[in-house]
Amino acid sequence: RLRQLLCAAALCAPVLARAQSAAATPFREQRFLSAGVPITYVDTGTGPVVVLLHGNGSNLRRWQENGVMQALASNHRVIAYDARGHGLSGKPHDPTAYGREYALDVVRLLDHLRIPRAHLVGYSMGAMTTVEVLTLHPERVITAVLGGAAGRISPSAALDAQYEKEAAERDRDCISRSQVNRLNPAGTPPMTDSAFRAQRAACLANPFMDGKALAASSRSNIGRAITQAQVAAIRVPLLGVVGTRDPYLDDFRKFAQWNPSLVLVTVQVGTHYTVMYDGAPMSAAIRTWLGMHRDDR
Predict the structure, then answer these.
(1) pLDDT band, residue 25 (cuts 50/70/90)
(2) CA 47 → CA 41, 72, 79, distances in Å?
């Protein structure tokens, strides 16, 4: 029944990658120190609190560009922030400054704003952070939406080697061609040289991007994974949103086996990138989900 309602919110319709025309509201950016690292955030709207966590190499403005922040702010207090190493937040180059610090930043932000509990909505890296918050401080989470990733639940030496390869590419080129290819749908041709050169130039010219910080973030993933027991112990209401062409779909299926309370909704033909870039179905799904939990405190 729950999945049917979410599908009725248009989430299960095919998704097409498209530019969003919604104008980005000039939300006022604020800062606080999280264990010595400056974190930039915006705080808008009134109502139940929702915290938005963006993906790797992105920033809080993605939630504005795809219209999700504006849609939620109509009846929620919405907080979005630049994860450390991203956007206008501090960018340490030491891998030990990342890892579980991502999850602790969420708790510190809630403490800074004197918010006891909140709904968390994470995408990709943000979803992985959300899962870790659920294992470390579940008492701070009302419900959680995992978009595009279900946490680091498939550890392997090969994956650790992949993280190191991607980190080395970030160190050198600011972007990681290997990461782009890994997250593309199966059967997609590898990134072309011309596309790589264009994205590399754009990354190097982008003041929000710091290849050394992104490399440190990638290295912090090595040797870190969420166990089956930790996933099974989660009692917070969970929604998973993933495209049918996203390589992380298998992780969501494994997560659902470990914790059957996960409500898993797939976006037909959606990829790891289009599900986030196309904000309309994301907004509809999140708003429907939050509406189902409006009385949760």
Answers:
(1) low
(2) 18, 10, 11
Three-state SS letters, 37-82: EEEEEEEECCCCEEEEECCCCCCCHHHHHCCHHHHHCCCCEEEEEC
Do 290 and 143 meet the contact criterion of CB atoms below 8 Å apart? yes
Backbone angles phi, psi at 290, to 5 degrees: -65, -35
Amino acid at 41: Y
Question: Is residue 51 a contact partner of residue 39, using CB atoms and an 8 Å limit?
Answer: no
Q: In what order do the strands lie in the sheet with 77-81?
A: 29-34, 37-44, 77-81, 49-53, 118-123, 141-147, 238-243, 263-267
| DSSP, res 148 | S
* Tens digits of residue pLDDT in 44-54: 999 999 999 99
pTM greater than the 0.90 cutoff = yes
Report residue 228 as tokens: 């089956």
| Burial class of residue 253, CB neighbours in 10 A (0-12, 13-18, 19+) | middle
Q: From CA 16, how far away is CA 29, in angstroms rounded?
A: 31
What are the angstrom distances between the C-alpha of 193 and each of 164, 169, 185? 22, 14, 19
The closest of 162, 123, 129 to 248, measured between CA atoms, is: 123
- pLDDT digits 0-9 by tens, 136-169: 999 999 999 999 999 998 778 888 999 999 999 9
